[in-house]
Known about the structure:
- The protein folds into 4 domains: 1-44; 56-106, Orthogonal Bundle (Arc Repressor Mutant, subunit A), CATH 1.10.10; 108-148; 153-205.
- The chain contains 10 helices and 4 strands; from the N terminus they run E-E-E-H-E-H-H-H-H-H-H-H-H-H.
- It has helices spanning 32-35, 46-69, 76-85, 93-102, 108-122, 127-136, 141-148, 153-165, 173-186, 191-205, and strands at 3-10, 17-22, 25-31, 43-44.
- Strand 1 (3-10) and strand 2 form a beta hairpin.
- It is rod-shaped.
- 24% of the residues are buried.
Amino acid sequence: MQHKITALRYQKRNRHRVNVYLDGQYAFAVQDTIAGTLRVGQELSADEVTGLQGRDVAEAAYERVLNFLSYRPRSKSEVWSYLKRRAVPEELIPALIERLQTAGLLDDEAFARYWVENRESFRPRGARSLRFELRRKGVDESVANEAVTGLDEPESAYRAAENRARRMTTVDYATFRRRLDGFLQRRGFGYSVSKEVVNRLWHEIHPDEGTDDADQALPGQASA
């Protein structure tokens, strides 16, 4: 059975939604991008109405994802999880993901580079920690490894620890080393990198003082 479109009217509270009237009565609403393909007088079958409503669900989900991506880049896994949380029908998700990838809005390699660069700028971390964070966000292991290739860990560790170190000007070397080493290892830096940076910062802050125990490992650690 065919139904004729008798009116297309923008909603008062949402100018991106259009109410569709069939045979003189309100039938359903769609995004304005979909309504642009319709015209008054056009006849629709029941299957065509169902198809339009399905397209509307997908289009609304796409608009929500664009907003989700506007805050920062996301991984494919993050977007997939977001769509599931928003109760988007699972059968629609692959097509939405593909649409985003085709538009250049979803790229795990670009996301991994962004994540590492952002951490380097604001909260430097070791390669081990960065790989762990990327894997938690669903990034493939090979992509995560590539993103941290070439990372200058001693320099990153130095920038991560510098401000903290300069707030410990009155403590002895053993305390300085224990606190700073723990901080750096929690940031994912290995013992050898931590030891190098701790000694570098100690000598910058105390150029006239030695480190008699500089070559001794902290309790529970092996010497590098």
